[in-house]
Amino acid sequence: MSTPTITDSPGTRRYEAHMEGKLAGFSAYIRTPEMIAFLHTEVDPEFEGRGVGSALARQALDEARERGQSVLAACPFIAGWIAHHPDYQDLEYTPRSVVSD
Question: How far apart are CA 59 and CA 88, in angstroms?
């Protein structure tokens, strides 16, 4: 079984996973210098169950860590992946201000 190749595609604002010469999945984002917000992750049905989503999450989050960025996981898949991998929870974005009545 082959493993996906993950690349950042800033022009389309997404991380892409390729397997067997095909686009197997992607994770769309918005990036600022301080933060990356993941909006949507999708895996082609042909490649489901082969670790594509996990490979996307791991590569994207590792790169966020290298850049010193926090992560806003608006995407349910990325949020769930972080919840199941405690070693990535320190990347989660925390608002600096608190509004109170």
Answer: 12
For residue 34, give both structure tokens. 């301080």
Six token digits for residue 43: 């895996």
pTM over 0.85: yes
Q: Which residues contact 13 (CB under 8 A, 6 or more apart)?
A: 28, 29, 30, 31
Q: Give dist(CA 86, CA 98) in Å, integer.
A: 25
pLDDT for position 41? 98
Position 2 confidence tier, pLDDT thresholds 50, 70, 90: confident
Judged by DSSP in three states, 17 sits in strand
Instruction: Report long-range pairs for 77-83 (Cβ below 8 Å, ≥24 apart).
Output: 77/27, 77/41, 77/53, 78/27, 78/38, 78/41, 81/53, 81/54, 81/57, 82/57
| 13 pLDDT above the threshold of 90 | yes
Map tokens 């290298």 to a residue.
Answer: 66
